[in-house]
Amino acid sequence: MRLRADSDAAAIRRFPAHYRPWRDALFWLAVLAAPVFWAGLELLTHPTVDPYWPLHEPRRFALVALAYPVLEEIVFRGMLQEWLRERWPNFGPTAGITGANLLTSAIFSAAHGLAHPLPWALATFMPSLVFGYFKDKSGTLSQSIVLHIFYNAGYFLIFWNPH
Fold first, then answer.
1. What are the CA-CA distances from residue 116 to residues 75, 93, 139 (Å)?
2. For the whole model, what pTM was predicted?
3. What is the pLDDT of residues 123-143, one digit of tens each?
């Protein structure tokens, strides 16, 4: 991969090399957004789920809460978003969201539509923008992977019934 053009680097303020996400208020806002979303969804849907299902099916939980987020971040943020950013470096950003992130998030949501009902697939769009934002800002996948694992683990723990 090539380095960002000067105009692109100026458009996106990269975090310094010593950046620590746990000292970033936006990172913590992204972390706190998930439980707020889960609480609202819980009030709206009243799911009937066995909260202990991950203990009965640890491999399945590890797959959806750990493996899928890591693989999705590598494919969507690490490969696709980077590829799009390299091809169209001046596409965005708007309000901190690059065009590459926007297009990657749309594709991410569409891909989720292959395995989930349309409302759930569309609900992945905003978290995808958050993951992509931290990928663009930090230049690494670490924050997006941590957030994606946290979002998936909570969602599948609270709302998914594997039976």
1. 19, 30, 30
2. 0.84
3. 999 999 999 999 998 889 999
